[in-house]
Amino acid sequence: xxxxxxxxxxxxxxxxxxAKTGLRAIIAIHSTALGPAAGGCRMWNYTTSxxxxxxxxxxxxxxxxKNAMADLPLGGGKAVIWGNSKTEKTPELFRALGRAIATLNxxxxxxxxxxxxxxxxxxxxxxxxxxxxxxxxxxxxSPVTARGVFLGIKAAALRAFGGDDxxxxxxxxxxxxxxxxxxxxxxxxxGAKLTITDVNQEALAQVAKDTGAGVVAPGDIYDVAxxxxxxxxxxxxxxxxxxxxLKARVIAGGANNQLSxxxxxxxxxxxxxxxxxxxxxxxxxxxxVAAEISGVYDPAWVEGKVQRLMETLGEVxxxxxxxxxxxxxxxxxxxxxxxxx
Length: 341
Ligand code: NAD
Prior knowledge:
binds nicotinamide-adenine-dinucleotide, 41% helix, Rossmann fold
């Protein structure tokens, strides 16, 4: 583990096995410098346990940066369950995960992530209090994530176009799931012209109907002559194959890990495109979860934090411009400085 490129001075990494339920889980804690580590639990059918470990290491480091940029009293951590989320999920599996989380005595707070629902995490919460984002509590973080993404798009538009009025701006949105659908709602209300795509035809038709958006096939979204490209689906979609096709001057969306590799940040900049670093613009959801962790859920505090985070995004974009650097490098440097790395 210590020799892996993804190992970034993690404080601790915990492996759990439960024979009765078949739970195989890894909880990676990157940093608790700013507070208890917080980050969701992912369930994925990794090919090898090594792949699971590398994913846990990368994701937990990313959570340290995200939480630091949102100025939350939280460190970075992440849980991964090695298994098929379509066929292997049981309430008992998540109770076993809850018992695993409990052994860390509050050093790590969990929530849902890819392959895991809030209802799954409710079973984990039967065994430990260190689970947030539960039904009946702060609930689905997606609307707050989307609100942040919308404000972040405006902050990026202000820098790229000299004004943040989105009336008449053409935005291409990739993915109209939980986050993307809400982002489209905000954009439509602001008068933006929308082109959307999704592999889920039902979701696509619904959002097109609600917002008047035009629709393209998933593979065609990179060629749309839009002002702004908003990735709200998958990771690694800014890569050597897609970047030359983009016509947009701004990339700003909710998806995690948008750049296939960090050096794509420089490539994006060379093409004259302004990139809003993903873990800054999509931090609204973790702010919502943090409000629940704090013990007092206050929507006004959440909104204030989201607005402040988008000011931070503006500062990152301005500093990158001043120093002639890629925006992701500037964000990384600020985040590392905040966690003392
Ligand atoms: P979701 O699963 O609800 O939505 C993702 C959508 O993308 C789905 O509708 C899916 O059909 C679509 N999609 C999948 N493959 C696609 C493809 N090849 N082309 C086009 N569309 C495709 O997930 P979500 O909660 O909306 O999250 C979206 C992204 O935002 C993810 O990367 C997630 O990690 C990130 N994110 C979400 C939150 C949150 O609060 N939900 C917070 C931070 C980051």
